[in-house]
């Protein structure tokens, strides 16, 4: 017959049972959480969320939408404007784009090397640019001016110098620009 213990002291067998029960509960929770992490990681790798357009970062410069001749600002038949950019360490190519004021603007961006960020302060434009995927954001500029575009995802030692610009022009000036003038903010 077990001997009674003084008040407040729990028998060793009960302590061991309770600790084993908690060990099993915590192990089960750990297995459940790891399962969730692995399953979501695998399924998102197969089917990434949001705008899923892929591109081969090793050959995008050879042809298609992101060939050098297609980069920069292009006027669309519906009156909107599309700006195609490539982010690479440590620059956006082209480093400047001219767009008209009060016009729908679509930015299509991809990366050749690492994850970059694309941000236009004072607008709704803010996205991550990942190699192998095309990021697309849409906006409209309500007033002319120069908008600086910093890379806001750390991309290496030269990250702090990775800037580009969007030069928003009055609507009547934009049609007068040639294709090369739309991708350069140098004084003409």
Molecular structure report:
The strands form three sheets. Strands 1, 2, 3, 5 and 8 form a five-stranded mixed beta sheet that branches. Strands 4-10-9 form a three-stranded mixed beta sheet, with no helix packed on it. Helices cover 19% and strands 29% of the residues. It has one helix spanning 12-46, and strands spanning 72-75, 81-88, 91-93, 96-100, 104-111, 116-119, 126-129, 135-140, 145-150, 163-169. With 188 residues, it is an alpha+beta fold.
Features:
188 residues; alpha+beta; 5-stranded mixed beta sheet; 3-stranded mixed beta sheet; elongated
What topology does this entry show?
Layout lengths: L11 H35 L25 E4 L5 E8 L2 E3 L2 E5 L3 E8 L4 E4 L6 E4 L5 E6 L4 E6 L12 E7 L19
Parallel strand pairs: 2-5, 4-10
Antiparallel strand pairs: 1-2, 2-3, 5-8, 6-7, 9-10
Give a brief description.
The protein is an alpha+beta fold and 188 residues long. The protein has one helix at residues 12-46; strands at residues 72-75, 81-88, 91-93, 96-100, 104-111, 116-119, 126-129, 135-140, 145-150, 163-169.
Oligomer: single chain
- Return the structural class: alpha+beta
Order of helices and strands: HEEEEEEEEEE
Low-confidence stretches: none
What portion of residues is helical? 10-25%
């Amino acid at each position: 017959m077990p001997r009674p213990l003084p008040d407040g002291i729990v028998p060793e067998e009960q302590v061991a049972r309770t600790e084993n029960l908690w060990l099993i509960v915590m192990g089960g929770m750990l297995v459940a959480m790891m399962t969730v992490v692995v399953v979501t990681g695998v399924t998102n790798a197969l089917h990434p969320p949001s705008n899923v357009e892929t591109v081969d970062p090793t050959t995008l410069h050879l042809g298609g939408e992101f060939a050098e001749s297609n980069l920069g600002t292009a006027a669309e038949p519906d009156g909107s404007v599309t700006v195609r950019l490539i982010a690479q360490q440590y620059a956006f190519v082209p480093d400047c784009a001219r767009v008209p004021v009060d016009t729908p603007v679509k930015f299509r961006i991809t990366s050749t090397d690492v994850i970059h960020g694309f941000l236009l302060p004072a607008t709704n434009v803010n996205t991550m640019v990942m190699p192998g995927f095309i990021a697309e954001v849409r906006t409209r500029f309500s007033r002319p001016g120069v908008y600086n575009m910093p890379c806001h995802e750390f991309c290496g030692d030269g990250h702090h110098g990775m800037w580009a610009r969007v030069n928003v022009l009055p609507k009547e000036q934009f049609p007068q620009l040639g294709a090369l003038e739309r991708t350069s903010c140098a004084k003409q």
